[in-house]
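Comment thread on ticket #2218

A.B. wrote:
> Attaching the input chain for the structure job we discussed in standup.
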Amino acid sequence: MDGSLSRLDSRQQRANEGVSLDHLRLGWRPIVARDRRVLGVRIEIKTAASGGPPASQSALGAILAALANASTCPRGLVVLAPPASSFESDLRSVGEWSTQVNSSGSSVMLEVGSESLSTRQLPMLDVARLQGLRMVLRNPSRDLPQDWQRLFTVVLDDGEGCEVHDDEGPALWVRDMRTRVDVESALARGAQATIGWPLDEPTVEPSAGLEPARRVVLDIVRLIQSDADVMALERAFKNEPSLAMLLLSVINSAAFAPTAGLTAPITSLRHAILVLGYKRLVRWLVSLLGVSSAHTRSMPMIYMAVQRGFFLEALANQTGGMRDDLFVVGAFSLLQQITGHSHERLFESAALPRPVLDAIRAHSGVYGAYLALAEVIERGDGVSSERAAKLIGVSMGEVNAALLSSLAAADAVTLV
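C.D. wrote:
> Ran it. Output below, let me know if you need it in another format.
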């Protein structure tokens, strides 16, 4: 890899000095717009059953402090969903933190559950709003004054009530739709975005070959023509997992590997770029343009695959694992859903190491627990994430730091 993530991790570590993340159990989901662009992320904040934050720091305060101090804070939306039990204490201090975080270029929003909200707390919300805090209200209660509802973005766990009848009403999002049909139905009825994305269905119908996005192919060609360094090219390939898989397939193919004098499969994208060379890389990319197409419908899954790659790579820094292998495990873990092709078809020509294939196909082998950890964090399952972290020998503080840094890294290469 290009070292950018290791530098990112070191900056995150320095930024988080004095900020305890060990007591937190974080989950995350993408926020996806109607046009399938990823607008940002929702971070769910839970605390451990035993132990808690330092007396001077709430669960929300710990995350806000980490984001405010980190130069790698995501640029997109960051919706923070803290525990309902800490709602009032969070409100008292959130204005100061949100100002610092928002000044870094991101847009932090606080999620409030209607069950936590009472008319007695409305003045506190008003003060926070005047301090610049934007808020998301989950499942609004009928008891909340209509004028107040307009101050929130409204999130509905059940998309049935998302019809928009008033253009001046609150923006509506839906959450955790189980199927792609549910997503399409909610968006058709007026929802502007969805939190979370169904992962159990293929995005595209199977076709004769893999179809990397035309825009990404053209962007990489432009990078080469402008004499960009290999690190910039590697980042561009990370942004398109199916294209990265094709590159590794070509470099390890029976037609190419012997002529390049390769004695072992290449799993590093940077190594593949260097071995292929810029001129041959351009010719290969141009040849793909005839069969490539822009699958904007795949973008939510591509974003999640890229984030998984960065997350597992960050964990490898902390465990002494294989950075390149773990990035591939994460980035390729959703290729079956992205492309509509089976694992057998996808990897028949890619000479990937057996531990990588075992993890992607069956969550088994030495890397299987890493991928399982990434998946349970996406579900917000704090108990399972703690168990998975113990299996690979990392603390929850290290897991949380890796998650925050990987969300910022995925944001940097995929949000436009």
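A.B. wrote:
> Thanks. Noting for the ticket: Residues 299-319 form the longest helix (21 residues).
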